[in-house]
Amino acid sequence: MSRRLPPLNALRVFEAAARAESFSAAAEELYVTHGAVSRQVRQLEDWLGIDLFERRGRRVVLTASGRAYLAEVSAALDRIALATSEQLRATRAQIVRVNAPTTFALRWLLPQLSGFQLTHPAVEVRLTTSDEPIEKLGDECDVAIRGSQQKSAGYAVTEFLSEVRLPVCAPKVLEAQPIHEVADLAHHTLLHTATYPGLWAEWLAASGNPGLAPRHSQQLDHFYLTLQAAIDGLGIAMGPTALVALDVKEGRLVFPFDGPALPAWRYCSYVREARLEDPAIHTFLAWLRELGQRFSHRA
């Protein structure tokens, strides 16, 4: 059904002027000139075919028709304002702010997010990275992800992904110098990360080769640099299976050994208990758990 509506801008100007019974007050509220208010009110009166105000010199007073019309228009604008406010709140509720460690975000979460956005286009994930304790994040995020469980009162903690560590390298490294057994690592460069200095020693001990000396060792500052160095063929790294899964699938990395596997991180999500029923957060957590099950490995 077609609605017969007056000029909506004129309606808004009338409502502001009628509330104060002042064109000057309406002009100040709406950031327009006194003349603009007068013209909009006159346009509405002409459209309705009635006088809404009596002009008394510089003053204006609502007519009986104007007063009755104001009651209906004001109520209608209030309903529009309320509906708009509720819609804006609903829209904001579709934003999920996620905070995760940098390497995890780069190597695992970001490559998967396109799949989430395709299946949940109404939910926007805003990702930040840090390793700060959960309590320090405060209200800066809705979902925090960390590689180990932390004691955090008032948070719901859910483990969603576990992984193990295995040696990993680019295929061209094996093409240049094949590996048939652990002893062959003596002809290769082993990549180390400054924050995880003992990984190779631990793995070599678990494999029964604690004294093996590689051809060369190279240390990098951050773990994501170590993984990138492995992809670029600089040497062999100790790779967490979940964080290199996509690279292995797409042929950028390979596992020269099936084991032994060292235990690595067990990733958990942290959400304030009061936010668990938020629909967007609930949707993201369900996706995170489902995805994590497909990538999980345990030693």
TrEMBL record:
Pfam families with a match to the protein in the record:
HTH_1, LysR_substrate
Question: What does the record give under GO molecular function?
Answer: DNA-binding transcription factor activity; sequence-specific DNA binding
Sorted UniProt keywords: DNA-binding, Transcription, Transcription regulation
Specify the HTH lysR-type domain's residue ranges: 6-63
Q: From its record, what is one biological process in GO terms? A: DNA-templated transcription
Concerning InterPro entries, the annotation shows: LysR-type_TF_proteobact-type (IPR058163), LysR_HTH_N (IPR000847), LysR_subst-bd (IPR005119), WH-like_DNA-bd_sf (IPR036388), WH_DNA-bd_sf (IPR036390)
The family note in this entry says:
Belongs to the LysR transcriptional regulatory family.
Which protein are we looking at? Transcriptional regulator GcvA
Native species: Paraburkholderia acidiphila
Q: Lineage of the native species?
A: Bacteria, Pseudomonadati, Pseudomonadota, Betaproteobacteria, Burkholderiales
